[in-house]
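The aim of this short unit is practical: by the end, you should be able to scan a pair of folded records and say something sensible about each. We start with the first protein, listed as its amino acid sequence and then its structure tokens.
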Amino acid sequence: MPVKDKSVRDEATVKRWLQCTVKEFAGDPWAKDVWKSQIGKTILDASPRHQAEFIRVVVDRIGKIRDRLGKPMAGRDSRFANLRHEKDYPRQAADMVSDLLRRKLPFTEDDVVFLAKRTADVEVISEFSLPYLKGLIGLIEKHIDAAGLSPKLEQQVGRLAKALKWSGNAAEQRLITRLQRVEAPESLSVEGGEAWADQVVRDLKTAARKREAWTALIEHCRSATSGTPSSKWVKAAQTLLSRVGPAEFRKHVLVWFPLVDKPRSGRPSGGVDWRWQHDMDHFIIESNADVLKGLVWCCALAPDGRVARALTALALSAYRKLPGIGPRLVKVGNACICALGDMPGLDGVAQLALLKARVKFGTAQKVIDKAFNAAARKAGLPRDEIEEMAVPSYGLEDVGVRRESFGEYTAALVVAGADSAEIRWTRGDSKPLASAPAAVKHEHADDVKELTQACKDIQKMLPAQRERIDALHLAQKTWPLGVWRERYLDHPLIGVLARRLIWRFSKGSRAAEGIFHDKTLVDVDDRAISWLDDDARVELWHPIGRPVDEVLAWRGWLARHEVRQPFKQAHREIYVLTDAERNTRVYSNRFAAHVLRQHQFNALCGARSWKNKLRLLVDAEYPPASRWLPNWNLRAEFWIEGIGDDHGTDTNDTGVYHRVSTDQVRFYPLDASQAAAHAGGGGYSAGPDAELPDPIPLEQVPPLVFSEIMRDVDLFVGVASVGNDPTWQDGGPDGRFREYWTDYAFGKLSETAKTRREVLSGLLPRLAIGDRCTFEDRFLVVRGDLRTYKIHLGSGNILMAPNDQYLCIVQARSSTKDGGGKRVFLPFEGDERLSTIISKALLLADDRKITDQTIVRQIRG
């Protein structure tokens, strides 16, 4: 009679079934048609839970028969190999188990571990003695695929494989292979010892259903040794990826890629480049790097916004420089850029813009340019068009704002500035909250996570877009009014930047400069520009060539309305030809004879689209840093050379100079082939026998180009000069640079420093310390209670009256809050030196309250 289903195990019932099978077939131990018997029908009609329990009882009974036999004798003990011949062996029940294991039964983790253990306890096993063996291994594979491989089950899987090894039969060998793939995928082309590779091995242990597909894909990825994937490689990858499944692939690489930045878990087995010996934590072996590169290439075949962000993070990790080594994984970083450029849609292009702003490595910048151009060709659009169109909105509904409701709570994602975004939480009564409520985190975890990720992405993207828009000055691009509104003024993200900038509008003979204010476009007198329509064109306003009164008026407008521009525009420095430059005719010595920190200078070159190579002690000649301007058919050069000849003192361990000296700035013409090659991202090489063109007379260089290039060079000197370092009063190594440091630290003001003085002269009267501050030539003079201080407006270095004693203050962060805790308004972002000078002035004006003993001892002598 069929047994009714129960919610709990009924071991007595299933043990009775086992006794029935033994009793019913006692006269015919080799009977085959067991399911037609009365007990067979009873078991077939039982619930899945009872059937699973029946399997446990049968396997346990066989294990107890083996336990009774004791330890095996030396050699191959036939008693264990022929366990089926034991008189109380439940033959029909074992066959029934083999059939039942094909069904989907409710086995728990403990059930599977128990079945594997009792089977492995036999020690010498075969399909003859245990006919259910193949079904049991299939059950283990399915369980691992669904729930993962626990340490307990992994141990029993290893024992099972060992118990099968005594037989040389092909059937048992196939079972051993299946178990080995579960236990440790030996065919996997990844070597452990790296955090990401260890995770790959762990994940593929638990992916029984997809293991063969993954193994084949990763083996294919290991062949990714070329610079870019061939069409043959991509075609094979598409086939293998379809077997794994795009969703499955994305799920795993989103876990693996972030681990590439984690320290190693063990020492590599092979030889290692000597440079890595002191920093093994970040070493990735060559074959693993190839696998990584292949996985990255595959990402272009399974595109997704999350994958694009993961590739960006991986590229940043790959290009991260390590002392004495340089970028740690250049080929992986290049592969990330290649994959982003090959991705369909605009997700990849948006991430390329972010990398262009954040990666300072010159070779990477070249690869990014190629990827941008390739993406533009694929889309059939000019590069600048696709860069504009690819900027994501991150779900922002209005310019700079996104609101999400979670029951009685509301979250507002607010883009507060040119490089900041935050999530503001409120309750139904509009009461602000410090953070997300616990109930919201619990009930809407995925939505909160997505909102938080959007906030992080915006904070990374804003600086990249700020750099792109700043570069529009040299591009001299114009837009129809409607296109400009869509891509700039009203774009949910870009609008945050565009609405703080001044634009020039033209239509026929009419022209006006305007800025967004109070929901409309107004001129410098706050009057709405009413004649704008679809026939109007727009360009970014630049102060060069504009009347001084107009520039000053716009500076006043920004101060009056407290609009902080994302970069210097109204306060932008203008560089015009000097008499000295007219005399030298084809070169400028305006920024010659400075001493710069080479690595900092090289990073700045990458950020400002200059091409530069690090100078080495072994170099016979030093190619100048250059910026190509194909729109103007020009190339600018800034001549640089290394300083010193003492390896280890003037250079690092790899022979790269610590410092470089500056020389001339020159301009050269580009012919059509050079301009086209550069525009296509391929670069241009004149060849060893090519005749170099003569430099262009400076008076023939367009004023806008001259000004912007000299502004870049001023930035290089102003940021990378050793004269900015307050700890270099002694002149650096052997005091060799003492004279230069003194001349720079307290010398003539550059154009940037002059702008700083103008801004400070307007800000200080509004500060609490305004009555304690005056200007004296190139210094901001601050009267404290203990001493009077002179802060150099270029370097930020400080002298103390009455004897011009040097005061060294090294600040970790600059605070620009006045005495009342209110943040000081600055009319533009990006000048960290201005913030530093203000924070030093605020500190020294109240010098009696300084608690840092290093500073106090210097002040009090």
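Turning to the second protein, read its sequence before its tokens, just as you did above.
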Amino acid sequence: MNEHALRVLEFNIVRNELAGLTACSLGREKAEAMLPSDHLALVKEILKDTTECRSLIDLRGNLPLGGVTDIRPQIHRSTIGSSLDPRDLLDVQNTISSARSLKTFLQRLEDYPRMAAQAGSLGLYPTLEAEITACIAPNGQINDNATPDLARIRSRKKVTAQRMIDKLNTIVSGPMRTMLQDPVIVQRGERYCVPVKADHRGAFGGIVHDTSASGATLFMEPQAVVDLGNELKELSVKEANEVARILARLTDGVRRLAPSLTETVSALAQIDFTAARAKLSQVQNAVEPVLNSNGYTRLKAARHPGIDPEIVVPIDIELGGPENQILLVTGPNTGGKTVSLKTFGLITLMAQCGLHVPCRSAEVNLYYSVFADIGDEQSLQQSLSTFSGHIGNIVQIMRDMRPNSLVLLDEVGAGTDPAEGAALARAILEALRTQGARVIATSHYGELKTYAFSTLGVENASVEFDTNTLSPTYRLLQGIPGSSNAFAIAARLGLPESVLEGARLDWSGSNETVGLLQELEDGRRQAIQDAREAERARLEAQMLRRKYEKELEGLEALRREARDRMEAESRQLFRRAQDRLDNTLSELRKASSEGRETERARAKIKEIESDLQSAISQQVIVEEDTITDSAPSRPLRTGDHVRIPSLGVTGEVLDDERGLSIPVQVGSIRMNVPVATLRLIGDDRNGRTKKEKGEHRLPASPPEDKHEAAIPITFASNTNSHTAAGSDGGDMVQRALNITPQITLLGQRADEALRNVDKYIDEAYAAGLTRTRIVHGKGTGALRRAVQDYLAHNSLVESFATADADEGGAGVTVVLLRST
């Protein structure tokens, strides 16, 4: 990346802010060395890391990076044979401890796989961490119990020192006290002494280790403690040797793990750097840019990261489309042209570093290189004028530039004769356009506005200026050429009107095409805007149509599925009810009188009525929501043949249609059915009916005896039949789903047990069970005989037998039901 561009675009503003958000010197080093990249895949991966870490920090706060230091110097010294001191080892211990905590924290988070992957490079060093913790205290001192030898040495040293102190105290408080200047114990070097008057040196006896400045006082080690002092000195030497041995052992542990520790340090640096990028995104309220390599960049509400967010004016800017390979920005001085130029360049560099950008939304092209010529480049030392400095930079840019480069030129062609400068600026822009560069240039030259209007791929832009207040708004307006507003500013500052009028006449005479140019530019801009809006509306309409078509297909599939399911359930309920009805009627035929058997049969028939009404009601719901074939084309009449789709059967209408429901004879069953659920069979244009070929019908069997004929099945029609029947049907289905393969009769009387068995057999059969168990217990055998006698006469029972010993033996009867 071009170093000159990084400097003039003030890229260090971003670097320094990012470095200030790192947690340790490792991340700071990476932030300060950050450079843009033109490798699309790499930058996209970095951006994904930034985005995921931003999400993590938003929800869970900052990463636990406390305690991390740069231990690379310690690792290096360990590999060249130098022994690490306790402070060095504590830095190692704190860093690997922080790495362990960070790894645990990140790898527990299932929603942040990229951060967990970075944490995977962090090593765990439990042995080294434990050894350093055991040997070195937080204050940097070696622990007494670091080794048994050190503990023993220090213990002896304490005892010896105490013995020496005790003897010295005896001396300073005993008969020899008169020989001392003061009754105190002092240290000289590593020896314990007392201050002896010089004239008592011979009488006191001992070793002189120091004298006072006047020579009147001798600091002497009494002869009585010399041996103890020697012993203490030897113990100190042993202690130092043991400490050195401990440090060497711990240093060797670091040396053996040096490659892995280096990798961990690198991973910590990367995680800290990623976290800093995420925190920068938070601070700047930035967004993830969408990257491309097609040369197109579009920034919405872009803010310069170096300007106070409270005062910065966001700009919208677009570059690289078919209409604006080059963007020419004109307008008054201090209007924001240079800031717009730097904002675009700096945000581009940030995106190419994998940073979020301070915009509302951003789509950014990854440029091969970014070049910039901004500011006054004159140099007194090199005798370069402003013009020469600019041209020198442009020459270097054109020499180094390749396709897919971004070139930012401030006041192109300025600093020389206006006519020559305008011609030169136009030639430079045309050369850059021909080479495929994307260019933003600022200028005051009116000739360049005409060039932009007449050249394909070059677009005018301007910074807005409020002529009433004579102040810039700092907004960038693309498609509109700007004005320097020199007359308005001069008038506001007090220039005489006569002077201004003369200037206007001269200027308008030489710029007759300015007004027409402005009108044409405005018209072109509006046409482009209208075309974009129309295309956007067309795409939105197309997307909505596809969305609604897909939703409609899904709804139709759901409705078909619901109808099929409800019809199947209704048919099953009807078949089961028909079987139970046949069985009940058979029992009635066998009954000789209206007794208990008849009452039970009537109760069963009431249940069958509920089941059939449930089937009909379910179809009402389906028909209302999902039926697609048409209702009868005329009112139904007596004798019409109709189909009940929910039951898969046909029947004959028994009365003319007069209301919402109509009586229908289905086989031996008479029922009231909602007209909306019926389909007329074979209806021709004259209203006649004929039997539908292949239609399944239940046979209309004539009554076999007076009992059957005396009990017609009729359903009363009422306005609440849908709700009530639906509820009954729902209960029936629920009972079928909850039926168990076993009934227990223990403790029941025979008549009570038989009623329960009768009900249970019916429900088990209706639910489709083929094998059940009746637990009646052994006892006297009376209940077993009563149950088995009942089973022998029940038409729903295929066979039964006493259970095997492992299933309950004589206390259980196993029943096989007929297939439904």
